[in-house]
Amino acid sequence: MVDLSVQLGNLSLKNPMIAASGTFGYGEELNDYFPVEKLGAISTKGLSLKPREGNPMPRIVETPSGMINAIGLQNVGIEAFIRDKLPFLEKRGVVVIANIFGNTLDEYVEIARMLAPTSVQAVELNISCPNVKAGGMEFGNDPKMAAKVTEAVRRAFRRHLMVKLSPNVTSIVEIAKNVEAAGADSLSMINTITAMAINTKTRRPMIANRVGGLSGPAVRPIAVRMVAQTYPEVKIPIVGIGGIVNANDALEFFIAGAAAVQVGTATFMAPDACSRILDELEAYLEQSGIASIRELTGTLQP
Ligand SMILES: Cc1cc2nc3c(=O)[nH]c(=O)nc-3n(C[C@H](O)[C@H](O)[C@H](O)COP(=O)(O)O)c2cc1C
Q1: What is the pLDDT of residues 174-183, one digit of tens each?
Q2: Structural element, H or E, at residue 59
Q3: Is residue 42 part of a domain?
Q4: pLDDT tens for each residue of 216-252
Q5: CA–CA separation, 275 and 36 (whole Å)
Q6: Quick one: which H or E segment has residue 268?
Q7: Which atom of ligand 1 lies nearest, measured to the CA of 59?
Q8: CATH label of the domain that carries residue 210
C-alpha cells in the first residue's frame, strides 16, 4: 500500500490527480467512464459572473503533439453552476476546485463571494486565459495586477486559493512571487501557450479567433521548465500542468517541484486518462518501493 495523499497548504487531497479546467466539464459527463470521486479533485470549466457562449467555431484544431483551442470560456455562469452543477459533485463527494474568471477585478470578487457560502473547497483563479478580449491574461501578465486580483479574491474567499499562472510572460517566477505575497495558497502552472495554425489552402487561420492556446505534450517541456524554475523561489505548493499523458510525464513535474498535477488534453485523447494515469502512478510507487508520492516533490538532482 502506497500513500498517494497530498497536502496543498490547507487543502487535503486523497491523491495528486486533478482534472484540469476546461477539459472535464463539470464532472458529470466523465462520470460514465470512471467514478469521478476517484480523483484528488476536479477543477471546473472556467466560471464567469454571467453565462458565456464562447467564441465562434471552429474553436479547436489538432497540431503536432497537441491542440490549439479558443473556446472563449463558454460556461453556464456562476449562478447556474451553484444551482445545477455543484449538487452532482457534492453527491459524488469529490473535492471541487472552482476555476473562476472575470472581465474586471470586481467580477472576480463577486464570483468569489458567491462561492464563499457553498461547499466548494477551493478557488482556482484564472488570470491566464489567452482566448478572451478583456480580463484573463491582462491580469496574469502584469505582476502588480496579478497581486491585486489575488489579494481581492483572498478577502472574499477564505478557503483554499490557487492561482493559475500564464506561460505567456517574460518571467513566470516574478508573477509567482507576487501572487504568493498577495496571499495565494498554491500556484497552478501552466495555462495554454498563445499559438496559431494556418490553413495554407484558404490562407486563413484554422480557428475563428485567429489565435488560441496550445496544450498537450508539445507544451510539456516548457511547463516542466517553469515549475523547476519557480519551485526554489516560492514556499507555497505548485500544481504542475501541461501535456501529461502518462505517469512518467507526471513524475517529471513532481521531481521538478510539483506537489500535485492536473491533466487536461489527455482527456480528449481518452476520456479515462486521469484515472489510468493515477493507476500508473500508484503502480510506479509500489514497484519502486516509494512509500509516499510526497517524497518525490522537488527531488531534481543538479
Ligand atoms: C479545450 C480547453 C479548454 C480549457 N479551458 C480552460 C478554462 O476554462 N480555464 C482554465 O484555467 N484553463 C483552461 N484550459 C487550460 C487547461 O486547464 C490546461 O492548463 C492546459 O490545457 C495545459 O494542460 P494539458 O496540456 O494537460 O491540457 C483549457 C484547455 C483546453 C484544451
Answers
A1: 999 999 999 9
A2: none
A3: yes
A4: 999 999 999 999 999 999 999 999 999 999 999 999 9
A5: 9
A6: helix 266-269
A7: 1
A8: 3.20.20.70
Query: 78-123, pLDDT tens digit by residue?
Result: 999 999 999 999 999 999 999 999 988 999 999 999 999 999 999 9
Q: Is 267 in the pocket of ligand 1 (CB under 6 A)?
A: no
In this structure, how many other beta carbons lie within 10 angstroms of the beta carbon of residue 1? Answer: 7
Q: Taking the C-alpha atoms of 109, 262, 235 and 105 in order, what is their torsion angle to the nearest 10 degrees?
A: -20
pLDDT of 129 over the 80 cut: no
The rounded Å distance from CA 216 to ligand 1 centre is 9
> Does 82 fall in a domain?
yes
How many C-beta atoms surround the C-beta of residue 15 within 10 A? 18
Residue 40: name the closest of 24, 58, 56 by CA. 24
Q: Does residue 301 form part of some domain?
A: no
Instruction: Name the nearest CA neighbour of 127 among 42, 71, 207, 184.
Output: 184
Record the cell numbers describing residue 129, joined without a space.
486565459
Element containing residue 225 per DSSP (H, E)? helix 220-230
Which grid cell is 230? Answer: 519557480
Residue 79 makes CB contacts below 8 A (sequence gap 6+) with 114
In a domain, 302, yes or no: no
**How many domains does the structure of the chain reveal?**
1
Q: Which atom of ligand 1 is nearest to the CA of 266?
A: 26
- Whole-prediction pTM value? 0.97
The verdict on the CB of residue 120 being under 6 Å from ligand 1 is no
Q: Which range marks the domain in which residue 69 is found? A: 6-296
For 28-72, write each residue's pLDDT tens digit. 999 999 999 999 999 999 999 999 999 999 999 999 999 999 999
69 lines ligand 1 (CB under 6 A): yes
